[in-house]
Design brief:
Blueprint: H1 9-14, H2 35-41, H3 46-51, H4 53-67, E1 72-73, E2 89-92, E3 96-99, H5 106-111, H6 117-120, H7 122-135, E4 141-146, H8 148-157, H9 165-173, H10 175-199, E5 203-207, H11 216-235, E6 241-244, H12 252-258, E7 262-264, H13 271-278, E8 283-288, H14 297-311, E9 317-321, H15 331-345
Parallel strand pairs: 1-4, 4-5, 5-6, 6-7, 7-8, 8-9
Antiparallel strand pairs: 2-3
Helix pairs in contact: 4-7, 7-10, 8-9, 8-10, 9-10, 10-11, 11-12, 14-15
The structure holds coproporphyrinogen III.
Length: 357
């Protein structure tokens, strides 16, 4: 049996229920900016940590223990689903992910290996169980997966891309193969998220980080139906679902229509504006520029207060960055930011500076 969640303000905010203070967590909150993480990384590769449930649990707990964030996020990577497809996933030190055999044609799509998610990615379920055990109900655990466009882009580009030309070329030139590929990824991703929820994840996030490079028309035509194929059944599992992307100002209504009880937005749009475009009946996560954590404290504090002021006490806000935390981030700034968000949003403190509009 899972212990009841003691600090449930993250889950309450996802459901747009009243909270005692605004919940806060950070994308990539376990990572190289923390000495505790670097100590583990000194003797283990990223993939080793992901595949060793005890290590994955240890690094997942690091930011929870140190900063008092309101949610833990499973330590894994969105590209883990690519390895069983047989494309040769590697994380080369400092340069990010690379694939030894990226795909570029309809034939390549059809040659991707078939695999059983429960067997090949069972180590992730084991990590979830260990983390849930070690959290012992302190905060909820967020599971996650990559969104179909973002995962497809790594599969096609063989790594990170600046302009996504190879991805778009396949999408435009071989639309049928593209849809077969995304349908395949969607089915893997749905199973993968289900595995995490069944193992004990309390919420999940779909990271379709790079969808902002698409026109709204192309998003609707080439991605939205597949995102919906993932998000609909996952919503049926009864946990909050966060749907996240960057540079999505023009895509927000379509992302909302694809699904998610919470929409994650980046800093390139004012939060109030984003909420207006999304409609009031959805929760919102974001949206501090990760670089603000490198700024002098008064600048950082001001930026965080600006976000709370945009929210203006509305229900359904989860404080986060607009994208992952940067490796250069000073951990003390993270600690101070968590404290500020909690203190200045605390119910009963609504005359505080955060709400001076
Ligand atoms: O948020 C967390 O703390 C959980 C862990 C997590 C990782 N990757 C571990 C990781 C999460 C949520 C991710 C998601 C992820 N991975 C995304 C989506 C979010 C985003 O940033 O847009 C993407 C695109 C990836 C793919 C990926 N993994 C890239 C591009 C890189 C290299 C960039 C980098 O920061 O080095 C990774 C490596 C990676 N995944 C690291 C971590 C902590 C850093 C590598 C390390 O320790 O060597």
């Amino acid at each position: 049996m899972k212990p009841p969640i003691q600090n449930d303000r993250f889950l309450r905010a996802c459901r747009r229920e009243p909270v005692d203070a605004t919940p806060v967590w950070f994308m990539r909150q376990a990572g190289r900016y923390m000495a505790e993480y670097r100590a583990v990384r000194a003797s283990h590769s990223l993939l080793e940590i992901c595949k060793t449930p005890e290590l994955a649990a240890e690094v997942t707990l690091q930011p929870v223990d140190r900063f008092g964030v309101d949610a833990a996020i499973l330590f894994a990577d969105i590209l883990l689903v690519l390895e069983p497809l047989g494309v040769g996933l590697e994380f080369v030190g400092g340069e990010g992910p690379t694939l030894r055999r990226p795909i570029s044609s309809a034939d390549d799509v059809d040659r991707l290996r078939d695999f059983d998610v429960t067997t090949e990615l069972g180590f992730v379920a084991e990590s979830v169980r260990r983390i849930v055990g070690r959290l012992d109900g302190r905060v909820p655990l967020i599971g996650f997966a990559g969104g179909p466009f973002t995962v497809a882009s790594y599969l096609i580009e063989g790594g990170h891309s600046r302009n996504f030309v190879a991805t778009k070329k396949l999408m435009y030139a071989e639309p049928q193969a593209w849809h077969r590929l995304l349908a395949r990824l969607a089915s893997i991703t749905t199973e993968y998220l289900r595995l995490q929820v069944v193992a004990g994840a309390d919420a999940v996030q779909l990271f379709d980080s790079w969808i902002g490079v698409l026109s709204p028309q192309d998003y609707r035509r080439f991605v939205l139906p597949h995102a919906r194929t993932i998000l609909e059944p996952v919503a049926g599992l009864g946990v909050p679902v966060i749907h996240f992307g960057t540079q999505t100002a023009a895509l927000l209504p379509d992302m909302r229509s694809a699904g998610g009880s919470v929409i994650g937005v980046d800093w390139r749009i004012d939060l109030a504006d984003a909420w207006q475009r999304l409609g009031a009946d959805v929760a919102v996560q974001g949206n501090l520029d990760p670089a603000a954590l490198l700024a002098p404290w008064p600048v950082l504090a001001d930026a965080a207060r600006g976000i709370l002021a945009e929210v203006a006490g509305r229900r359904g806000h989860v404080f986060n960055l607009g994208h992952g935390i940067l490796p250069e981030t000073p951990p003390d700034a993270v600690a101070d930011l968590v404290k500020l968000v909690h203190d200045e949003s605390r119910t009963g403190n609504q005359t505080g500076s955060a709400f001076r509009l």
